[in-house]
Specification:
Elements (H helix, E strand, L loop, with lengths): L4 H23 L1 E14 L7 E4 L4 E6 L6 E2 L4 E6 L5 H38 L5 H36 L2 E3 L4 E6 L7 E2 L4 E6 L5 E7 L1 H4 L7 E6 L18 E8 L9 E7 L17 E12 H9 L8 H8 L6 E2 L2 E2 L1 H9 L5
Antiparallel strand pairs: 1-10, 1-14, 2-9, 3-5, 3-8, 4-7, 5-6, 7-9, 10-13, 11-12, 11-14, 12-13, 15-16
Helix pairs in contact: 1-5, 2-3
Organism: Novosphingobium fuchskuhlense
InterPro entries: MFP (IPR050739)
Protein name: RND transporter
């Protein structure tokens, strides 16, 4: 009995599919990746969002900026005056009084020093008692103590005057007003109250990716990274990076030694100067979300499927294997093969 034609074709198609799948798994390469999500950040702290705070307590009398307005470094943001409008006048009067006190104490101390010189000469001639000479020295010491106390008072007054003179709050850097956080004019603020937020318009960008702890041990500075920016059209094939479209390149700059609150490790990625530049800051602003793939070792598709089905970590690089197995990189020592090293490699997901 002859088999139906449809069954024969189906059998051949299944056999060819299985053969093709086996060939793909056995010979087609696949680039392993440690992937994670993150955001665009600024490398330089001066390029990050800055809060403009009040240095003194008082009342806001005038605003010089609005939300979204562009400002230059040192441009006035708001004016804050003390709740007591006569406070500065009283401080100036108190300072003048302390200066007069310092002048009087200085003159009195100079006179006491002359008295010490006279009593010293009389004491050497035996015309006065030692006690009179010591009393003259005590007056000089007391004058020095009063002078030091008056100068300390003057310094405290100068500090208060310097703080109160900072009533015009200015922008710490050039940028754009992202938010005016205080209320209307007339609102009362305390020292440290955030009045506004200035966001930079130019910055040296980087990407902060957050990677699972299972893969972070194999991530090293200099590793190549593929990045997909939020809002930028892209097609990504993590195992075949040459096929991807709309993906940008970077390299690992640093890896945090400890994890964050969620158990993920931060990896800083900088632009790769040998590749095409990242999109302009207008399209990928600070804080924009990014998805990244840190490229690791190249393996076969079949091995990668087996690794993921067994939830094993990524393949060790030759350098890591050499550091585990010793300088010769063979996983053994002078006394014999290293069983612990072989076990470590097996745990990494490589079958023996």
């Amino acid at each position: 009995m002859k088999a139906p034609r449809v069954a024969v074709i189906t059998a051949w198609m299944v056999a060819l599919g299985i053969t093709a799948a086996a060939l793909v798994m056995a010979f087609v390469p696949w680039v392993q990746t440690a992937n994670g999500d993150g955001m665009v950040v600024a490398l330089d702290p001066d390029d990050r969002t800055a809060d403009v705070s009040s240095l003194v307590s008082g009342r806001i009398t005038e605003w010089y900026v609005k939300d979204g307005e562009q400002v230059a470094a040192g441009q006035p943001i708001a004016r804050v005056v003390d709740l007591d409008p006569e406070y500065l006048t009283r401080l100036a009067a108190e300072r003048a009084q302390i200066e007069a006190e310092i002048a009087a104490v200085t003159q009195s101390r100079a006179t006491a020093q002359l008295d010490v010189n006279r009593t010293a000469a009389l004491f050497r001639e035996g015309l006065i008692a030692r006690r009179d000479y010591e009393l003259a020295q005590i007056k000089v010491a007391e004058g020095g103590a009063k002078l030091a106390e008056s100068r300390a008072k003057l310094q405290r007054i100068d500090v208060q005057l310097a703080r109160q003179s900072s009533q015009v709050v200015r922008a710490p850097r050039a940028g754009r007003i992202q938010a005016v956080n205080a209320g209307l004019s007339g609102s009362v603020v305390s020292p440290g109250s955030i009045l506004a937020t200035v966001a930079p318009e130019t910055a040296e960008r980087a990407v902060a990716l957050y990677i699972d702890g299972r893969d972070i041990a194999l991530v090293r500075p200099g590793r190549h990274v593929r990045l997909e920016f939020e809002g930028w059209p892209a097609i990504q094939f993590s195992g075949w990076p040459s096929v991807a479209q709309g993906i940008f390149d970077g390299r690992v700059r640093a890896v945090d030694p400890t994890s964050g609150s969620g158990g993920l490790f931060r990896v800083l990625v900088e632009p790769d100067p040998a590749k095409k530049p990242w999109p302009d800051l207008r399209f990928t602003r600070l804080g924009a979300r990014v998805r990244g793939w840190i490229q690791m070792e190249t393996v076969k598709v079949g091995y990668e499927l087996w690794r993921q089905l067994n939830d094993f970590p990524l393949e060790f690089s030759k350098e890591i294997k050499a550091s585990i197995g010793g300088k010769d990189g063979k996983g053994g020592s002078a006394d014999g093969p290293g069983k612990d090293d072989d076990a470590t490699v097996r745990k990494a997901g490589k079958p023996k």
